[in-house]
Amino acid sequence: MSANRYLPAGSKVAQLFPDILREQGLDPLVNRFVLTETERGNAWLFVVMDERILESIESYAAESVISRLTIALQGHPVLFSNSHGLYYAVLLSSSNLLKPPD
Amino acid sequence: MNKSNQRILSFLILTVLALMLGGCTDTLPNPSGIAPNPGSNGSVDPNYAYSQATIDAGQRQLLDLSIMATQNKQNMDQAEDAAALSTLEYEQRRKLELDFQSTLVSQNIAMAAATQEFFVQQTAVAMQAIAEVESHAATITQLAIQANATQTAQAQLVLDARVQQTAQAVAALTAYPLTATPLAATEAALLLQQYDREQQAFLDRLVVPLLPYAAAIILLLFIGLVVIANRRTARPIPWLYRLREGRGRGQIQPTRIIEGVEVNPDRLENEPFQSEQILPNSPHLPDENPAKIEIVNATEIPIAHWVYEVESRLNAEGRLPL
Q1: Which of B9, B67, B277, B309 has its CA 20 to 30 A from that of B251?
Q2: How does pLDDT run across A68-98, given as a tens digit for each residue?
Q3: Distance (Å) from the C-alpha of residue B295 to the closest C-alpha of chain A?
Q4: Which one of B292, B293, B298 has the shortest CB-CB distance to A37?
């Protein structure tokens, strides 16, 4: 299966991501967006950050920021990692994982 | 000469002897030749004895002379032989000398011939050397002539340039007095005015009517360039984006709290977040990728590491969908 079908969703996330970081008082130092799909059908959008965020990496990896990104992206899981690079990972293939509270 | 004198002397001696013998015959009583014995008579004539003695002496002398003549003749013969021998030897020596001289002459001739041949060879070599030298000299002369011709041509060019400059200077000096006079200056001013009028007429007739069309074409080109540049950047026009946002603000939805975080659903709901369930198999157009998303195979490095890590974390949290 091709990851091209996730390209519109990835584009929307890519458009919203810098604004969400800016709302959290963070500088959106994004280097690139990488879209991929695994063999099991999971589509991931990796938001690769610049190394300059190392000065305040705790702020970028804060749970509050992750939760804000998850909610702003309609419950799509968002993870931050500093292993093999600095990046956020957004799982595009699962939607409505986070149900809004009743 | 010596031989002739000896012959003359021998003849004179023989003549004298003959006369002496004739005188003696008249006085002798015995013609038989037997001398009388003067003693038989008892006495010897002293004259006779003297004569006899003279005869004897004369005979002895004659004999001596005869012997001497014979000897002389023999000597003469011997002298002749000796002379002949000496002449032969002389001739032989002469011949030897001549042969020797001829040999010398032949050697000289041979040496002269060799010398002449040597001189001929030397002359040939000299002639060849002279010919080569002349050839070199001719070549050098030719080169010198060519160099001289080149220099002459360059000098001619320089001279032509000088002549042209001089002609220009003369023309300038000649033209200056023509415009220096008032009448010439007036004529020149009139010519300039006429030229300006012709230029202005050309502009009025041809260039000015085309200016509106040219302006319209330039404006269209500018608009086209703006549109093309906007499509190339593939970003929405800011005022159009704000217009879309403004139309949605009429239906403001209440803020929701999700996991303790305040969420404004207007942003996402007015801008529908499309996942694969909303747009199945939608074709991808290059203009729909304004954020420059790279599509990379999940097996590539470091994407594989990233995928492994995040899926492991989600799996550990039990959030990874099956």
Answers
A1: B277
A2: 999 998 888 999 999 888 999 999 886 544 3
A3: 5
A4: B298
